[in-house]
Amino acid sequence: MLEKYLIAGGTASEIAAGVEAAVSEGRLPPGTTLPPVREAAARAGVSPGTAAAAYRLLRERGVIETAGRRGTRIRPRPASTFREEIRVEVPPGVRDLTEGNPDPRLLPPLHDALAAAARAHEARPALYGTGDDAELLALAGRRLRADGVPAAPLAITSGTLDAVERVLTAHLRPGDAIAVEDPGWTALLDLVAALGLRPVPMRLDTDGPLPEELGRALRAGARAVVITARAQNPTGAAVSAARAVELRELLASCPEVLLVEDDHGSGFVDLPLHPLAGVTARWILIRSTAKSLGPDLRLAPVTGDPVTLDRLRGRQRLAAGWVSHLLQHAVAHLWRTGAVDTGVVAASYARRRDGLVAALAARGLPAFGRTGLNVWIPVADESTAITRLLSRGWACAPGARNRIGTPPALRLTVSSLDVAEIEPLADDLATALSPVPGGRYG
To answer: Would the pTM count as exceeding 0.85?
Structure first.
């Protein structure tokens, strides 16, 4: 394919624009190897420095990646291609288990919280320059310290991904390696691609990332590590006490690595947190309220080392500026009044999740879902399994949205599943799925 495309242009910008256009038009498909810098310079009739600058621009835009001895190549998944686009069209009448939403019946009523927020706003309107809500920060700080997270500065962002994007942008540059869970959160994998970062996948089990996988990623030069503390999406893994000790030891050997810890499970998972926070010089821990209080009541208290929090706030001031103080007041009211009983919510999700995992096990089908809203089911072929299940009235999400190198699987969100549906669903899954040797998801 490369022989049909002539690298051309008189400047670095022109060469980069030509390559990017060829990628968009399909003349340079993903995986195509580009010539070494000196050869590219000779083809374009420019200096090696100009060709090197062009390649640098392409790396920064997420178009190409350097793959060691395999040379420079077009990214397997260009940054403009999003995993969220890998969807299943759900026909009318089919039960939709593809979305990762919480059960609306388990979300708290918001009338009193929003009314309290309105009264606070009327008494003291939040204007330009107003800081984050002091009560919310105090409540978040007490909860974090009670869970063993080191006392550190706090900030409020518009959800987990907002915090992650600001911190990664402030600390990393396109082409940097970042260790991510595999399978992992679709939105995070899309963000990593969009920022032009190089993902280093870490396999995991029910206790979180495998220590040997984190060690391999660190040896491969990962400059940042993202780990989900509880309710890992899509497998439901939760970092255990023993696993946390192993991971902390590995991270302590690389104190310059940025640690991003996602604890979005706080509020709907009743397993204790075993934090990794503070073991490296640069770290943040994020607690989104989207799953426990509702996706539209989206904000996230974030804590971390002073330098990282200062960079996050700086990026925030340049963009959104702040998170709505009305939302901050409302969340503070819900927390102060105990509007969500974590034990009750966690038990409700567990009945559906554990019930389905047990029903599948009784039928000889391995499935995973220790915590959270999802069940991860290894399959021989995702497309075939999805088609067969659709014909039986069930829609589930393809694991391809979450996977980098792990085997095929399906993700089922069980938050809306009624207990009475578990056995019929398990019967249809047993009929639709081919056995998977070993039932691995990592």
So the answer is: no
The backbone torsions φ and ψ at residue 233, rounded to the nearest 5 degrees and listed phi first, read -100, 115
* Long-range CB pairs of 199-206, under 8 A, 24+ apart, other chains included: 199/404, 201/404, 201/405, 201/406, 203/406, 203/442, 204/232, 204/235, 204/237, 204/442, 205/237, 205/442, 206/235, 206/236, 206/237, 206/238, 206/368, 206/370
Q: Which residues does 83 contact at the CB level (< 8 Å), separation at least 6?
A: 77, 186, 189, 190, 400, 401, 402
pLDDT at residue 23, as a whole number: 82
b/e per residue, 175-213, with b = 16+ CB within 10 A? bbbbbbbbbbbbbbbbbbbebbbbbbbbbbbbbbbbbeb
CA-to-CA distance for 58 and 327, rounded, in angstroms? Answer: 40
Class of residue 116 by CB neighbours under 10 A (exposed 0-12, middle 13-18, buried 19+): middle
Residue showing tokens 């939105």: 187
Question: CB of 360 within 8 A of CB of 313?
Answer: no
Closest CA relative to residue 331, chosen from 160, 156, 163: 156
Predicted local confidence at residue 74, as pLDDT: 86
Phi and psi at 432, nearest 5°, equal -85, -25
**CA-to-CA separations, 323 to 128, 165, 285, 304, 307, in angstroms, rounded:** 12, 15, 18, 18, 21
User: Which tens digit of pLDDT belongs to each residue from 302-360?
Assistant: 999 999 999 999 999 988 899 999 999 999 999 999 999 999 999 999 999 999 999 99
401/382 Cα distance (integer angstroms): 11
Q: Are 345 and 137 in contact (CB under 8 A)?
A: no
What pLDDT shows up at residue 440?
56
Which residue bears the tokens 């190409």? 64
Q: Could you tell me whether strands 177-181 and 224-228 are parallel, antiparallel, or unpaired per DSSP bridges? A: parallel
**Mean pLDDT along residues 101-124:** 95
- At 435 the pLDDT is 62
Residue 73 has what pLDDT? 86
Output the six-digit token pair for 206: 């029910």
Look-up: residue for tokens 């288990």? 97
pLDDT in tens, 129-172: 889 999 999 999 999 999 999 999 999 999 999 999 999 999 99
